[in-house]
Amino acid sequence: MIRVVLPPHLRTLARADGKVELQVDGPVTQRSVLDALEARYPMLRGTIRDHVTQKRRPFLRFFACEEDLSHELPDTPLPDAVASGAEPLFVVGAIAGG
What we know:
Elements: E1 2-5, H1 8-14, E2 19-22, H2 30-40, E3 60-64, E4 67-68, H3 80-83, E5 89-93
């Protein structure tokens, strides 16, 4: 099982408590994890990545194993610790303002 930690605003939208556990078939990549997340929680479609381009939304970042994975290609395999469920994939909301 893949563990995903969502920021509070997305947890509220998905009505999910804490970490989300997902079954991902095939290679564990950002794309496959987000596909599984959106399939389980359809209300999250378009909140993490754009509907059309499938690119990450500007104010969200992906972290795992103390690394920023935000700029990795969507089909790059995630670290083995994430794929095995030992470490979660963090979706982190950025704060901006002036």
